[in-house]
């Protein structure tokens, strides 16, 4: 009995099992009548602090309803940009209280300072790259407020980067929605590894190349 329970515990704690459960939970949200508010909320909070990428729910919703995939992409992009201004506002007006929780938890002081240097060199390009690539967007939105990045390049970079990222996903789902869902289901573990590599790679880029 104890051995059986131990095996079940090990299986449940397996990273792939945990991620699969998360995927199934997200899949339920994608088919829920409140899936669009959930997508908007996720897109908004991801730009400030939330660790789960918006792309996951966007892909599932688009795969379930391919004809609305571009609409979902628009919602994701719009609320992600609104969230970016939320992150900017926190950096600009609440950094004194936020810093102890942000530095060391979300990112390191070294990385944060590097982002500040990048903003001095080219604010638009820094925001665009963070918005479009796996580089943690939340770090750049809060840092933009801390380092007083001009609002125009911040807005244009965030809007173009997020729109390009989400509309590429939306277009693929619009044309190939159902097959995409089948491929994800079939090769879930492979996609999990690939996504993890991209996520870790995003932090590595911002830490070492910046």
Q: Main β-sheet: number of strands, strand sense, barrel status?
A: none
Low-confidence stretches: 1-15
How much helicity do the residues have? Answer: over 70%
Number of domains as seen in the coordinates:
1
How many beta strands in the DSSP annotation? Answer: 0
- Return Rg in Å: 18 Å
Overall geometry: elongated
User: Into which percentage range does the β-strand content fall?
Assistant: under 5%
SSE sequence, one letter per element: HHHHHHHHHHH
Number of helices: 11
Task: Provide an overview of this structure.
By secondary structure, the chain is mainly α. Helix content is 83%, strand content 0%. Helix 8 runs parallel beside helix 10. The termini are far apart.
Supply database-style keywords.
disordered N terminus
Short description:
The chain is mainly α and 210 residues long. Helix content is 83%, strand content 0%.
SSE layout and pairing:
Elements: H1 2-13, H2 15-30, H3 35-46, H4 54-64, H5 69-93, H6 95-102, H7 109-121, H8 123-132, H9 137-146, H10 151-186, H11 188-209
């Amino acid at each position: 009995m104890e051995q059986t329970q131990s095996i079940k515990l090990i299986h449940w704690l397996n990273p792939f099992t945990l991620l699969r459960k998360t995927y199934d939970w997200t899949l339920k949200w994608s088919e829920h009548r409140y899936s669009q508010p959930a997508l908007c909320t996720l897109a908004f909070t991801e730009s400030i602090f939330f660790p789960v990428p918006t792309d996951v729910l966007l892909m599932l919703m688009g795969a379930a309803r391919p004809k609305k995939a571009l609409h979902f992409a628009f919602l994701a992009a719009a609320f992600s940009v609104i969230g970016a201004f939320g992150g900017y506002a926190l950096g600009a007006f609440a950094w004194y209280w936020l810093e102890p929780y942000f530095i060391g938890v979300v990112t390191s002081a070294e990385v944060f300072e590097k982002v500040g240097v990048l903003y001095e060199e080219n604010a638009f390009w820094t925001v665009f790259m963070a918005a479009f690539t796996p580089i943690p967007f939340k770090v750049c939105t809060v840092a933009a407020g801390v380092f007083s990045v001009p609002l125009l390049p911040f807005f244009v970079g965030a809007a173009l980067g997020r729109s390009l990222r989400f509309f590429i996903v939306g277009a693929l789902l619009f044309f190939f929605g159902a097959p995409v869902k089948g491929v994800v289901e079939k090769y879930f573990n492979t996609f999990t590894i690939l996504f993890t590599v991209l996520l870790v790679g995003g932090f590595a880029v911002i830490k070492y190349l910046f």
